Every structure is written in structure tokens, then in C-alpha cells.
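The following block was generated as part of the benchmark described in Methods. Ligand: adenosine monophosphate.
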Amino acid sequence: MKLYNTLTKRIDEFKTLKPTPVTLYTCGPTVYDFTHIGHARKYINDDLLKRTLNYLGFKVKHVMNITDVGHLTSDEDAGEDKLEKGAKKAGKTVWEVAQFYTDFFLNSLKSTNVIMPELLIRATDHIQEMLQLINILKQKGFTYETVEAVYFDTSKFPGYGKLSGQKLEDKLKGAREDVYIDPNKKNATDFALWFKRVGRFKDHTMHWNSPYGEGFPGWHIECSAMSMKYLGETIDIHTGGIDHIPVHHEDEIAQSEAATGKQFVRFWVHYEFLLIEGQKMSKSLRNFFTLGDLQKKGIDPLALRYLYLQTHYRKQLNFTWESAFAAQETYRKLKKLITSFKNPLSSSRSMLSPEKLNLLDTFRSRFAEAILSDLQLPQAVAIMWEMLKSNIPSPDKLDLLFEFDMIFGLKLSETEADKIPEEILILAKKREEARKKGDFTASDVLRNNIVATGYQIEDLPKGFRIKKSSPPSFRA
Ligand code: AMP
Ligand code: ZN
């Protein structure tokens, strides 16, 4: 597979360091506000990358962090801790705020059919690992301490700036004035590894003991410490939004490579933004929509996923309601087409002619070619439609479509007709409880209620199975 690598600034052939698994670290959310559809684009892109690797036969070990401490309102050490600010606004504790928005985030992933990472981990559960890493950096002479914080000295790391391609001198020139909060910070690009509970942070709620006094970690150190703990000192792929390139990821490289002397990440993958009216959709600009806002207008989160599939991950996408409604309509049509293919009249399977077999193979290899060239998913979607319109018999089309959907993740094999309504599931669960208690009268009444709605329930050694009753046939 070929993948654009921000580090080399070219499309490179992707190879893993060890044969298996692919080690993947994806920067997760800062849980102080609602997950919006701009974030969703990032997490769907992560998912498309991971599904593509799975499709190609790679096992993937995927770690994602939840930032619940240390991310300041400016990525460059200025401003307040986002969590503390969110808690003040909501009149809740930081822990409550973090839990509430973590749950909201996880629901957003679930409804867009994002495969959960193998490890989803909170920064606040890894403070000791971060302190250990800071200690190594201190031993190696990369840190200095002021009254306010422990800093990483970027002038001591010769490769600083290699990800963004900026020279250290330019970065220093370009640094904003408001970054100079701590008068004893040596270089504008130096970043805090540990903030002390003094001055502007003297009332910080989340704090831990450390050799530098009570305090809390900086944002960047969490990703390095957690990535190394679970995936090793050098990993295959690390992802994030393009906003992470100049500070967060540059700083992750500096502190990780300074500590280990080894390359931290082999492939850096960055996604472009979702815009709205030409501006980045963001929490701070309050110009965002959540999945719930879309659902209120009848747009399925999976239709949003379909919309995102149509723009390459390295291109900006401007969100409009027209494009969202259009994606919803196309997604509905696609599902309807699949239902028609499942119709008994069109789904009887026969031997494929050599020409049709050949055509099927051509679609499969064109699809593979598209995804192999830096995840050209818009092209893959176009190939899917071409395949669906071809004269390949329906059952074979469906097989290939469901194979493509291993990457698209649009739940195409689940049609409306296959879904068991929630109320039937509730009746079935109540019936199971009645059976367990030996109340067979109640269980029979519940079975009759289920049958009356057009479903059948079958008892299995463990649990039950529900299916739609076949339509009544006419007597001769
Ligand atoms: P945050 O919680 O603000 O740290 O953002 C989490 C992730 O979502 C980061 O990787 C951001 O780059 C990404 N992100 C935030 N806003 C957008 C947007 N409008 N479009 C795409 N990705 C975004
Ligand atoms: Zn990160």
C-alpha cells in the first residue's frame, strides 16, 4: 500500500517494522465539549485506514488516548486547561465533565460504525508513565525547570521542526507573543512537560505529586508515554488532524526520540479539516453540528460517513446541508437497491460465465488499486456504483459489495427488512426472563404477542433467535 507520509512529504510504500501487527496510535479527543461532525471526519478517516489495513490482511494493534488533563486552550502552553474551563462552565467537577463527554464521544463512534481501538486509554491513568519519561529526559539533559514548569529544551534536539518542515529559527520568529507567559522559558518553541500548581494554575483541580512538586502533565507527553507503553519505542503509524503537525506531533517526536534515541513513528498520517462556510468547524468558533443535529433533520450518521467517503482524506471538505441531504438520499437509494437484489426473484444463484467472472475480478482489482494508492476512497465509491450498474448477477454483486463494505463500513448488509424492531426485542427478553422463572403461562402469552406482530421466536440452547415470519401462502 502507498501512503502519504507527512515526515517524508511524499507518498511512500507502506511497510511494517515487524511482520505483524501494524502498530497504530491515533490521537483521541480532549473531552471537555461535544464531539462534532468535524471530529467525526477525523475518527472515520482513522477507521477507513484501519479497515483498509485489515482488508489487506494486516492485523492492527490500535491505541487511542482520551485527553482528560493538560490540554490548554492554546496548543502552545498558553491559556487555561480545557477540562478545568469546561467544568467551570458546566458547574460540574472535571471528572464528571470528562466522563460525560467521553460517553458522548464513544456514542458518536458507535453510530458512525467506527471499530473500537484495542486499547482506549485515559491520560489521567498514566501519570506515572509520563513522570518516568520526563525523568529520562531530565537525566539526558533535555529539560530545565522554572518556578512554573518543567520544559523540554527544543534547542537541544537537532531534529526539531522536521515534521512541519519549519526551521527552528523560523518557528522562533513566527511564535506568537502570547506564548511568552513564563518569563523564564528559554525558547518560544520549548514546551511544558509538567506544569506546577502555582501562579495561574494554583487552583488546578487535577494534580499529582511529582519530584517537581504538585502539578499536572503537559498535553504532548501523554501521547508519547502511552504510545511507547503499549506499542513500543518505534511504531508504524501515528495519525491526527493537520492542526497537530506543527506543535503537538513535532513535540511528541522531540521528546520521544530524545528519550530513546530511536525513530518514534515511521508513518505520520494527517487528515484535512471539515469546514463550514469556508472556516474550520470547531468548538471555539461555535460553528459546529453534532450527529444528533443531523439526525434531527433525518440524516443517518452512516449517510454522513458516505458523504465523507467521497472526499479524499488530504482534501478539505466544506459541509453544507444540501450535500448532507444528498448523501442521505444516495445512501437510502443504495440500501433500496440492495433490498431489491435480495428479492428471491433476482437472488437465485447460477454459474457465472467466464466473461462475468472476469468482469467481477476487474472490479475487485480496480477497487484494490484505488485503496492501495493512498486510500483513494472517492474512486473506490465510484467503482462500487459502476459494479452495481453492471450486468453481473445480483447475488455476485452483493458478495462483492459486502466485501467492499469491509472498508466503507456503511453496514450495507443490514437492510431495514433485516432489523428486528426494539419493541420485539423487549418482548423477547421479557419472555426469556419468564421462562427462566418457570412462568410458562406468561412466556406463552409473550410468544403469542411476538407472533401477532409478524415475527417468530426460536429457543436455542443459549438464548433465542428471532426472525420475520414468512408471508402466508395461499391454499390451492
Ligand atoms: P480535539 O478534541 O479538539 O483535540 O480534536 C480531536 C481531533 O479532531 C484532532 O485530531 C483534530 O485535528 C480533529 N478535528 C477537530 N476539528 C476538526 C475539523 N473541523 N475537521 C476535521 N478534524 C477535526
Ligand atoms: Zn496526541
